[in-house]
């Protein structure tokens, strides 16, 4: 229904006052004009779109929420102040739901029936004010005018909840575009989940999260948000919700509470990446960050994110030639292990790991990520923003394997489904970690070859701090250097020094031919004595067989 109908669906004359929801007051405050009444609650979802989760490098297992005061609403947009003394005001275009009938413990299959209207919203926030109440967002997102909404309402009864589109423009440039089909948590699930904790009442508003593309806006910027249903009859639209940013002049009183504060982590998160924020790539760790004095320095990669895609470019390393990769793919890990042992290289097995998806194989060149044991102060400085873990996954190149040093600590995950998907999209060959994997079934479904110690539901920060990339690491008892060749199958994972790979694979394939011939002789009834390993007589027979092939 558009804004030419009241909550019950009864048409009204253009320009007439909206009929209130049953028992609600008439709407006279212009801040709430698009709505049937002043909402008792405005609830918002922290992270709900796959594109946003991919951008942030984390995918929640369940939705989480925060409250915004109804006093933050601004009907139809207008102007919004960036508070004096702040720099990081960010926009978030969203689909807003308006509850039509009370919902308490409703099943997901009936939840959409309790939504009367759909409209557009802009969940504005100031990153400078997140530090002291991060998560609750009271100060950063609760200010007057920080929830523009409207300008028109669409009848939810006529809409497919998976067929809505949200778009956001800044200065006429499209910055966000996604559909509700790309949500991690469907709209009906959000309503049903909220209803099992509290009663959703008529007029309440649910802000359903923002897709990728949210970034910083400055005084003078004009932000427009539109929600439509492009595949529905008539392609109904809310129209554009237009908000102009102005500069506030009222300074904060530091004697009353904490003042705005920003750092590079907040800047990178607000803008979407370090590059978009105008920041240099995060520097490699120095002596104070854990480099052993006297150790040979490792070369840090260029991990500045691409300003268009948010991806860091892959570190330039020689790729495996297609013919060599094909030969390695045909070579069992056991055969490679045997050849390395003959050459005195025996400590190259990543022990204690198994494939997430049985039956997969892995061949690629190593990129590395080092995780150090969790320490609260170090996680605060290195765990947030565009950290080493995110940079590593964002910079993976075609045919590369990310090897993660987790010290054999399986008490938390080192990656989940979003990062696995990121690696697959980047064309990576796979991941080997001597830590845990969360979203284990979902990671298997991604189809990326991953070897790990096992599943674990906890996030990285429970036991680890993401520290540095493209350095020599220890994974499952094996030393791995960037550029080493990693090969894995059901027998395990082996690391081949790059300089030896051609020699080793040729010898291993030759040995495989010999072993196959020996197996044929055993199957024909010959005893293994003198045959395995071959004595001079059997060797002569084998050489004659090879010559006659």
TrEMBL record:
GO MF terms held by the record: catalytic activity; metal ion binding
Comp. bias (Low complexity): 8-26, 286-310
Stretches for region Disordered: 1-37, 272-310
Keyword check for Transferase: no
Cofactor: Mg(2+)
Signal peptide: none
Coiled coil: none
UniProt binding sites for Mg(2+): 439
UniProt keyword list: Magnesium, Metal-binding
Domain Fumarylacetoacetase-like C-terminal: 45-245
Binding site for substrate: 416-419, 438
Record InterPro entries: Fumarylacetoacetase-like_C, Fumarylacetoacetase_C_sf, RraA/RraA-like, RraA/RraA-like_sf
A Pfam family per the record: FAA_hydrolase
NCBIfam families linked: PRK08245.1, PRK12764.1
Protein name: Fumarylacetoacetase-like C-terminal domain-containing protein
Source organism of this protein record: Cellulomonas carbonis T26
């Amino acid at each position: 229904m558009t804004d030419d109908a009241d909550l019950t669906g009864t048409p009204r004359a253009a320009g007439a006052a909206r009929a209130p929801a049953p028992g609600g007051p008439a709407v006279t405050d212009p801040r709430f004009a698009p709505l049937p009444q002043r909402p008792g609650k405005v609830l918002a979802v922290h992270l709900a779109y796959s594109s946003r989760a991919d951008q942030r490098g984390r995918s929640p297992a369940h939705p989480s929420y925060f409250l915004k005061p109804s006093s933050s609403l601004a009907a139809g947009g207008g102007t919004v102040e960036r508070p004096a003394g702040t720099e990081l005001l960010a926009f978030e275009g969203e689909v807003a739901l308006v509850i039509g009938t009370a919902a308490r413990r409703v099943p997901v299959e009936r939840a959409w029936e309790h939504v009367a209207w759909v409209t557009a919203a802009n969940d504005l926030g100031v990153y400078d004010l997140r530090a002291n109440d991060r998560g609750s967002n009271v100060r950063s997102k609760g200010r007057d005018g920080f929830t523009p909404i409207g300008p028109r309402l669409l009848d939810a009864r006529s809409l497919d909840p998976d067929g809505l589109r949200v778009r956001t423009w800044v200065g006429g440039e499209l910055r966000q575009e996604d559909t509700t089909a790309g949500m991690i948590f469907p709209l009906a699930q959000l309503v049903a989940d909220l209803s099992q904790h509290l009663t959703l009442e008529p007029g309440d508003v649910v802000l359903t999260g923002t897709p990728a593309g949210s970034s910083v806006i400055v005084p003078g910027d004009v932000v427009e948000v539109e929600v439509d249903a492009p595949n529905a009859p008539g392609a109904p639209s809310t129209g554009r919700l237009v908000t102009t940013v102005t500069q506030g002049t009222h300074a904060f009183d530091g004697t009353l509470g904490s003042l705005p504060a920003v750092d590079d982590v907040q800047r990178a998160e607000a803008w979407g990446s370090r590059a978009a924020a105008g920041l240099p790539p995060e520097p490699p760790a120095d002596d104070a960050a854990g480099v052993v004095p006297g150790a040979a320095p490792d070369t840090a990669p260029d991990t500045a994110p691409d300003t268009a895609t948010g991806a860091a470019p892959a570190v330039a390393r020689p790729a495996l030639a297609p013919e060599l990769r094909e030969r390695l793919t045909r070579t069992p890990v056991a055969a490679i292990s045997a050849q390395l042992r003959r050459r005195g290289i025996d400590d190259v097995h990543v022990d204690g790991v198994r494939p997430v998806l049985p039956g997969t194989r892995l061949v690629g060149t190593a990129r590395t990520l080092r995780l150090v044991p969790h320490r609260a102060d170090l996680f605060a400085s290195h765990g947030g923003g565009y950290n080493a873990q995110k940079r590593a996954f964002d910079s993976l190149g075609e045919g590369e394997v990310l090897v993660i040093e987790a010290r054999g600590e399986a008490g938390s995950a080192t990656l989940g489904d979003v990062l696995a998907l990121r690696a697959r999209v980047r064309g990576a060959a796979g991941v080997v970690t001597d830590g845990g994997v969360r979203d284990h079934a979902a990671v298997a479904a991604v189809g990326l070859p991953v070897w790990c110690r096992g599943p674990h539901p906890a996030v990285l920060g429970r036991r680890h701090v993401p520290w540095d990339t493209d350095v020599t690491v220890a994974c499952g008892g094996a030393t791995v250097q960037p550029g080493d060749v990693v090969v894995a199958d059901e027998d395990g994972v082996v690391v081949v020094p790059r300089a030896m790979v051609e020699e080793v694979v040729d010898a291993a394939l030759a040995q495989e031919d010999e072993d196959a011939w020996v197996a044929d002789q055993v199957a024909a009834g010959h005893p293994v004595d003198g045959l395995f390993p071959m004595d001079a007589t059997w060797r002569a027979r084998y050489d004659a067989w090879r010559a006659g092939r």
